[in-house]
């Protein structure tokens, strides 16, 4: 019986966590403690920061405070694209700090993919990552024009001839047989990640270094040199906020990062015949060029995980912690899967889940440290957090150690985006923009024009993207 007719598991964190084996949570904070660095959030931002700081300062006491278990958040739920695409628009970093600074950021993102893969291999969780590359596919003329234009822009933003290639329709179809695939572009700078195995592996590596990880412990307030939790206070010289999409749940932070939903669906394993029909032999990560962007992964055990469409935002910056996906979201994602691969019509879906990522008002990630208050933070990667968190961890290390390095001078340091609007404006804005993008996609899919829809252009301007 196909899993479509069996019960679709909805929520329950993610397929990745179930597949990696549900973890037994580590012990909670035993009571008040005093440490050098307290990191709040056991996702990849918190883990990488601990990993790099502890190596430089083995004598420092470093504690991670995690509400559930490491990998419960976006780090254990994502699409598994570890890509070199920057966690913020080049033009914005260039406008703020100059073109050279934005170019440096791009080079560091290439390095972050390499470093994230190398560490996984060195630390014994290399089986969670594969360097398969990435393909962006256009299924409309307007999408193709955008793809080619984007490659021209990338070449001016530090991507060399070997870093990115345009694809014609026939070049694309030799690599993956996408319905209405008109071409696109590809880059080798992307690794396929099993998010839960990766994050669990990183947490174990951090613990081996001597970092203390307290799970099942909720931070209720972050103050200079203090983390208030439901299990006692943590006094620390440095307090790192590494909560990304969960930042809004702290007092006073509701409008700092918008908790944007992203939902995925994963299929049952494809048969050899289904695989042969779609011809995706290189297992590259796959994305489209639609405005309501979809991202796909062909997993090592031949399932397709596809995400991107659905309910973008819950009123009041709320979200469902276990990650249930609204039924219409599942329908939209299923529809997109069979638009791209009609031969998979009727394939069984095994699980769906939703996670939150943190979106700053200017859509640009930021890494900050104030030596006076000891307060540090990193996040707002807008869907590019897998390699972004690695770079953020190394950047925070340098900032906290007071080092004047090239990382400490990257254009995402010392940034402060303005706060999001009050409700109901946030909800109206987020849902209205996504409705506009869906409408624009439908128009472009039916049109022979290479022009991007005017509605999408206006939506981009309003969103500030
Ligand atoms: C569905 C989805 C798909 C994505 N796909 C991709 C992708 O393919 N490629 C990519 O590069 N990026 C992707 N992203 C983004 C990427 O996953 C994130 O940017 C990245 O994982 C952020 O890591 P983090 O450690 O900052 O946050 P998180 O991983 O969210 O970690 C925050 C942690 O804080 C904990 N926490 C929350 N509140 C408290 C509290 N009060 N006290 C203590 N702990 C608390 C949470 O339990 C959580 O473990 C995706 C995100 C989502 C949601």
From TrEMBL:
<feature type="domain" description="FAD dependent oxidoreductase">
    <location>
        <begin position="36"/>
        <end position="399"/>
    </location>
</feature>
<dbReference type="Pfam" id="PF01266">
    <property type="entry name" value="DAO"/>
</dbReference>
<dbReference type="InterPro" id="IPR036188">
    <property type="entry name" value="FAD/NAD-bd_sf"/>
</dbReference>
<protein>
    <submittedName>
        <fullName>FAD-binding oxidoreductase</fullName>
    </submittedName>
</protein>
<dbReference type="InterPro" id="IPR006076">
    <property type="entry name" value="FAD-dep_OxRdtase"/>
</dbReference>
């Amino acid at each position: 019986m196909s899993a479509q007719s069996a019960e679709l598991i909805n929520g329950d964190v993610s397929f990745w966590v179930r597949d990696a084996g549900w973890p037994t949570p580590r012990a909670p904070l035993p009571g008040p403690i005093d440490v050098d660095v307290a990191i709040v959030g056991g996702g990849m931002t918190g883990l990488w920061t601990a990993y790099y700081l502890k190596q430089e300062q083995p004598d420092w006491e470093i504690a991670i405070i995690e509400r559930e278990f490491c990998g419960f958040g976006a780090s254990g739920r994502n699409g598994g694209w570890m890509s070199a695409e920057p966690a913020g628009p080049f033009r914005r970093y260039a406008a703020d700090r100059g073109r050279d600074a934005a170019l440096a950021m791009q080079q560091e993102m290439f390095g972050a993919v390499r470093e994230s893969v190398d560490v996984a291999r060195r630390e014994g969780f290399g089986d969670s990552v594969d360097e398969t590359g990435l393909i962006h596919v256009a299924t409309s003329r307007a999408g193709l024009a955008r793809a080619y234009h984007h490659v021209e822009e990338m070449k001016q933003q530090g991507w060399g001839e070997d870093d990115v290639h345009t694809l014609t329709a026939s070049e694309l179809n030799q690599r993956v047989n996408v319905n209405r695939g008109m071409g696109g572009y590809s880059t080798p700078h992307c690794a396929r990640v099993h998010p839960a195995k990766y994050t669990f592996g990183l947490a174990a590596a951090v613990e081996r270094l001597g970092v203390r990880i307290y799970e099942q412990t909720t931070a209720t307030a972050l103050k200079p040199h203090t983390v208030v939790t439901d299990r006692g206070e943590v006094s620390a010289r440095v307090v790192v906020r590494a909560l990304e999409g969960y930042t809004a749940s702290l007092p006073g932070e509701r409008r700092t990062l918008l908790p944007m939903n992203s939902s995925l669906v994963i299929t049952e394993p494809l048969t050899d015949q289904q695989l042969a029909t779609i011809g995706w032999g290189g297992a590259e990560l796959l994305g489209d060029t639609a405005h309501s962007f979809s991202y796909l992964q062909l997993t090592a055990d031949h399932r397709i995980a596809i995400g991107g469409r659905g309910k973008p935002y819950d009123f009041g910056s709320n979200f469902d912690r276990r990650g249930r996906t609204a039924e219409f979201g599942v329908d939209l994602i299923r529809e997109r899967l069979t638009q791209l691969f009609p031969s998979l019509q009727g394939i069984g879906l095994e699980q769906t889940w939703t996670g939150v990522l943190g979106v700053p008002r200017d859509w640009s990630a930021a890494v900050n440290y104030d030596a006076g208050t000891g307060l540090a933070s990193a996040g707002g990667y807008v869907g590019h957090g897998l390699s972004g968190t690695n770079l953020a961890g190394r950047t925070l290390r340098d900032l906290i150690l007071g080092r004047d390095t090239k990382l400490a001078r990257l254009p995402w340091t010392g940034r402060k985006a303005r706060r999001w609007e009050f409700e109901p404006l946030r909800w109206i804005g987020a849902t209205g923009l996504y409705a506009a993008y869906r409408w624009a996609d439908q128009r472009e899919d039916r049109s022979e024009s290479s022009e991007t829809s005017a509605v999408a252009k206006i939506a981009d301007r309003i969103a500030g993207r």
